[in-house]
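Input.
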Amino acid sequence: MAHGATRATSDLDICPAWDRDNLGSLADALQSLGAIDKGLRIPVDAKMIYNREVTNQTSPFGDVDVLLGIPEKSQYERAQYRALAADALVIEVGKDSVLIASLAAVIRSKGIADRPKDHEGLPELRALELAQRQGTLTRAEARPLTPDQAGDHGPSDSNR
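Output.
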């Protein structure tokens, strides 16, 4: 949605900097939202996140997936936080800056993931990317998120 897409997703994917301190802060934030691991049905902690490439949480505010990275060249070669941050779209949510993976990275990862739900959204994302390349849509014109869409559930680290 931050890139201008009208198709909403059903969860939030987070690809944080993968160091223990940051993952501890993320786990604390998830716990403050009442998030629990979908499979184990227990609160998530930093060790759980650190030891798994993907964790899936559910909370009263919606589902959150924490990812080591997103597919870059194959399912097994992933772009992690630093690579994604280099070309990220930066949006303001309240007092915080939030990094959103570039449209090209999202399109690439959805193509590699090759799931039916990804195929549904790809035509619109590719059209948005084409409009950006042709200069008929700039990143600055991409649809800004409202606080309700982005969620305002407490403090966040604007760089991670």
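The CA atoms of residues 43 and 131 lie 42 Å apart.
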